[in-house]
Design a protein that fits this description.
By secondary structure, the chain is an all-alpha fold. Helix content is about 55%, strand content about 5%.
């Protein structure tokens, strides 16, 4: 298709320049069709509409197995939805005193549930090998035993 887009004009009605307008149109339709197909495929594969539910189920399971606060789910969900959140909001979301919240956040970072670029930096959800199978089950096999 790309080679056809670069072919010479096919008669006087095929564009204005030296190259074929018909070939270019065919390539654009081909390319955009494949791009739309891939967007549709990835939308179904990632299933982002159900991501919040998967995060909450994972956090509930993690909290049960590791004696973590049940508010881990809302913390991870907020980090996912907002992209990142200030550490100062962790205490409010976890519904814990500031010192306890800092201890939990440090623990969650060490366990690769959350991540941060610096010691006091904003928190983001971590898509580590531990969690990625739970969050994206159609892309990765379910994670290792948590």
């Amino acid at each position: 298709m790309l080679a056809n887009a670069d072919s010479e004009r096919q008669g006087s009605l095929d564009g204005r320049g030296n190259l074929s307008n018909k070939g270019l149109i065919m390539f654009c339709e081909f390319f955009l069709g494949r791009a739309l197909d891939q967007v549709s495929f990835m939308s179904k594969t990632l299933d982002l509409d159900a991501m919040q539910d998967r995060i909450m189920r994972f956090a509930e399971r993690w909290s049960t197995l590791h004696d973590a606060p049940v508010e881990l789910g809302p913390l991870m969900r907020e980090a996912f939805l907002r992209g990142s959140l200030p550490r100062s909001e962790a205490a409010r979301i976890l519904n814990k005193p500031e010192r306890t919240a800092r201890r939990y956040v440090t623990d969650f970072i060490e366990q690769e549930l959350l991540c941060s670029d610096s010691v006091g930096g904003p928190l983001s959800i971590s898509f580590s090998s531990k969690t990625v199978g739970y969050f994206f089950p159609r892309l990765y096999p379910e994670g290792v035993e948590i």
